[in-house]
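Task: complex structure prediction.
Instruction: return structure tokens for all chains below.
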Amino acid sequence: MDFALNDDRRMLAETLERFLSDNYDIEKRHGFAMMDDGFSKQMWEKFAELGIIGALFDEKAGGFGGEGADLMVVFEALGRHLVVEPFLPTLMAGTILAGAGGQEALLEQVINGETAIALAHGEPSSRYELASVSSIAEQSGKEWIINGDKSVVLGGSAATQLVVSARTTGEADSENGISLFLVEATNGVTKRNYSTINGYGAAEIKLENASGILLGEVDQGYKLLERAYAAGIVAISAEALGAMHVATDLTVEYTRQRKQFGIPIGKFQALQHRMADMLIELEQMRSSVMNAAGNLDKDRLDREKEISACKHLVGTIGRQVAEEAIQIHGGMGMTWEYAVGHFAKHIIMIDHVLGDTDHHLERYIALGRNT
Amino acid sequence: MDFALNDDRRMLAETLERFLSDNYDIEKRHGFAMMDDGFSKQMWEKFAELGIIGALFDEKAGGFGGEGADLMVVFEALGRHLVVEPFLPTLMAGTILAGAGGQEALLEQVINGETAIALAHGEPSSRYELASVSSIAEQSGKEWIINGDKSVVLGGSAATQLVVSARTTGEADSENGISLFLVEATNGVTKRNYSTINGYGAAEIKLENASGILLGEVDQGYKLLERAYAAGIVAISAEALGAMHVATDLTVEYTRQRKQFGIPIGKFQALQHRMADMLIELEQMRSSVMNAAGNLDKDRLDREKEISACKHLVGTIGRQVAEEAIQIHGGMGMTWEYAVGHFAKHIIMIDHVLGDTDHHLERYIALGRNT
Amino acid sequence: MDLAYTDDEKSFRNTVREFLKEKLSSRLATKVKLGKRLTKQDMEEWHATLNEKGWLAVNWPEEYGGTGWSAVQKHIFDEECWAAGAPRTVPFGLNMLAPVLMKFGSDEQKAHYLPRILDGTDWWCQGYSEPGAGSDLASLRTSAVREGDHYVVNGQKTWTTLGQHADWIFCLVRTSSEGKRQEGISFLLIDMNAPGVTVRPIILIDGEHEVNEIFFDNVKVPVGNLVGEENKGWTYAKYLLTHERTGTANIGNSNAALEKLKAIALEQKKSGKPLSEDPYFAARMAKVEIDLKALKTTNLRILVDADNGAAAGPESSMLKVKGTIIRQELNDLARRALGPYALPFSSEAMEEGYNEEPIGPDYANAVAAKYFNNRKMSIYAGSNEIQREIITKTKLGL
Amino acid sequence: MDLAYTDDEKSFRNTVREFLKEKLSSRLATKVKLGKRLTKQDMEEWHATLNEKGWLAVNWPEEYGGTGWSAVQKHIFDEECWAAGAPRTVPFGLNMLAPVLMKFGSDEQKAHYLPRILDGTDWWCQGYSEPGAGSDLASLRTSAVREGDHYVVNGQKTWTTLGQHADWIFCLVRTSSEGKRQEGISFLLIDMNAPGVTVRPIILIDGEHEVNEIFFDNVKVPVGNLVGEENKGWTYAKYLLTHERTGTANIGNSNAALEKLKAIALEQKKSGKPLSEDPYFAARMAKVEIDLKALKTTNLRILVDADNGAAAGPESSMLKVKGTIIRQELNDLARRALGPYALPFSSEAMEEGYNEEPIGPDYANAVAAKYFNNRKMSIYAGSNEIQREIITKTKLGL
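Output:
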């Protein structure tokens, strides 16, 4: 049993952290989030140059990472700086492309930062249910014609290539009969772009007779989706961990500086005890992210239980850390000008990405019944 | 809207409180709990003389009270002194006798303290489900013959007359088909007497061809039961409130006296904030008991929603108050010698009487669906 | 003990309900229910409507043009207003300044300012907090130095809610640095249009402009604008803190939020069934409903006691803490109920004029923003930490 | 980063499991699993069994007869022992006194006392707390006055766990009242059979006799029983606090409690179905399981770091707080799972010899008692409040 990072990952972490410290303060971040599609294309290219996109994928897919520990290292750093570039959509769509095979050329472009991709899976009524797919794909010669609505597609605003889930057989909520397609975001694809409240580019996407290329086997898309979601959850949880770390550090530091009644508020015991609880839960969060990351390539049931356990904790610990960070800061924590509120906002909103705390608690229980 | 007690009840409260202050300190209480059947027959007679038993019943039943507010006043005082005499069993069995009618003579003996009664309703597998009755009653001439097992019958050890529920028709968990009987605790009734962990007399009761007198109408016992449970829940909740009050007062007082690091521990802000939360929840508890008591004779749905809301809070607030009281006392809170632990114990164990916090939350939700 | 409303109270509720049906425009009610941004004009319109009916100053005695209502009546009015989607009234003049003026102001001050609060001539804001004086209010440093028939005010106030709309600000200022810190504070009324007053917006994390910093640079304030005696301002501010208990518990607000939550949970589907039928979500909704039910009674008990002349204790602190916990839990449940549709946010969609198709359900846009905005509730008006101090210190007497 | 157990670790687990299968009597395991009262003989029997195998002193280096195991091995051993229903070892000699002797004791002391801990000759108990010195340990007042080749000890210790069985007690005593309060404290070994030592039982709320008061009335203690230097006892006590981190998190204990809870929830029926299928109860069980899963990793991370020589920080405080929260939540769920059958309690049924039919299920009798008994976990060994202080003070450095 070994909890340390190997040398490659330590270097990756240091490189990324140094780059972000130099180039990604909170003011710049707000600027990037205000750009078209909600991020800086220039930064995205630099990330590609530094090899950070490549770190999300294994060698078979043209990358040089792709293990749970790689995702953890990269996304924790991204979370510490609230990076708005589309790493999560890239990871999730890319994981499916890599898993399906045959998309090496596209993946190379993705890893080079030339092509933006996203996973268009959720639908207006699917909530967090992974198997709930109502979009329909029908074969027409060698092509597939897809119709349906995809909602809250993170990174969807920028993506020129979409990985789209659609039903090729079965009931609307059956795991069987979901297929995945690569769809060019042009003919038959209408996007309504917007920004999420925490500053990330997203889109509502309408598919009207859009044509797609089948990824992997027909009807067998669920497994690829689940694996992509697992990777996505490791990533977004590590990102949450990074943001929680900063929120906690800012809070601790604030209580050292801020005085009331003539003494630093960090000397007030009631706040001390609550910060102690934040620190304890932060360690729990780190452990849980490690458990999820460390099991990403293990048996499905082991993996998925750790994944759901982790995302459940992201919701509960995240809420505690975010709300305490604001509360202990007082009014300052509420302002746009000061950083901590933005960290809190991101932490809370991550609960709405890839399944919330209740969803994953229920899923964890259901997975336990299968053992 | 009026939250004050009327003069009669204020006098009742003062009389009872004075009597208990003079005669019922914690040492005496332990002594009473160690007696046969888990209480003092002498004290019981004195309570009867003071009219406290009569205050549980309305004039039709030979008493001079019986409203929710009467129960609240009496049981809150009982809770402040951890009184072990069988008020709750008397109230619940008596409410059924009064509701069924025709048992005036017996009720008179009960109110005089001459006869001990109890409600034998729960069964080994019924948990908290009111309609779950598997005991069977069959008619044989004018008599009814009853067979079945009754479990955790509070006051069952002392009772010479039992109000027993048994099924006369229907499925084992149907509200319809439950009938109530008056059974003399002699032939065909085997008791195994014991004490609960918080010091109250109880019994497991086996009915083997016991003969009973039908109370009220055949198959229609559920309504009477539900009303008796409503009264019982108002009572035990008020009792819990009284105990929570003392536990909180003892805790506050302890922190004024007990010094660590040279100052009273009540000056430690972390404890102050937690005690503030205890005090807030105590007010919530009082409000909820008032809501339940004030609706005891209102429409069924209003009544039952308030009843379940209240018993739910008894479980959650009770746990908070009991655990904090012990924790803030430290080691002293763990000892038999010091009073607060006994209050905590009683508060916690009340959660297991007449449905726990989860049961009543679920019931509250179900009742809401009926509106 | 009788928890039922009397017939009079029931008929009062009907009267209020009919008034609201008739006089509250659906334009305003819709904005409030969808959580859209209210303009200054919206708020003024609603004040005027209430004032016309004589129902604006619910906490004022009749002699000053108030309603003279009982605690229960005020509670009913509050519940009905929230249920109907009425904007909340702006409290700074009505509920904060006015009671101080009535108790400590001169006859001239009362005669001049009180009617102008009612008829909307003056919009007031509050100048208590300073950057270095939050919970520790007594450490405030904005100074007022007497020069002839004027004070000259220098310093800075912050967290001034709706100060951007205000004509006047009532301030705690330091007029002496001798004795205890609390002793040199005075209560001063300052014209926001006076030379030397500057307003700087503070944008909150939900992007809203709601609070401000106010700077005073050699602002001349006539001596006649001093309320009560010099150096006694702390007493007046404290009087206000314990005096005003209606509304602290946020009952009407939470009622309305609970109803909205229930509507969302009924409409949102989880695996094809309403979210409200999900056992775990239903349990969390029921818990907060049960808490709110109890708090409603706690609130009424305290208000009725106060009507009957009970001395003010730590009760309003209890109402503040529990009331905000409940309100914030409702915010949390509402954002959670939305699922992924809590994420999209459009600031333009907060405006009345916006008529593009909403992203997701039409009630979704403001929900997450409101969750973040309402984090302020446990911070402002004496943080919940300060309230807990007050509660235990009163009880322990240490 | 590799979270899997190595092959060596897996095979170690098998070895432990087989040992337990062979050597742990079903008599003892049944008593432990039903939560019955363990006698002194029960505990001594288990110590002897472990000692025979060389597995008693898991935290000692091999040179003293310890196992020399890695952190992961100790963790595995702990998990397996709890899972099998082994009694816990009595920590006072093994894990509290021994490390202090090894680090600060004389060669004679080591040679004399350590083997006697292993072979069960000496049963040790701990004399730290006093009636006036709980969390504020440095205010202790039991005095030891040097008279020739003896100290004369007077005073009182309290909360002395299993002191009724003990042959020896290690005490913090005051040998000087000069300087800081911490500076005049010494670490003394006292024979419980010496004249002037009296033991008075303290009965806990569950009716158990587990802790004691110990009175010292002019007890003569040879100077040779002083550990280390006079007036340096505080240093030794603190060393112990940060040194010993295995077990603080209660992982094995909580594992076993979770398994027991699951068994109860499967057997207890609610409306005809296992309670474990009730969505709300299942959610609460899953939450604590998820917390425990994370804490297991937190624990291992910290232990492995410590093995690798990491300096001791506030980590053991974190493990203590979260570990007891989890353990106590499991106690709460277990009593709740029992429904009405949590109420009956028979002290006689806690004894091994009891063979009447149980009231309710056979596993029910000890459950509520254990809930109350385990409230101690957040109080003893540095209350959770003290642990939180340590955590933040380390982090804030204020």
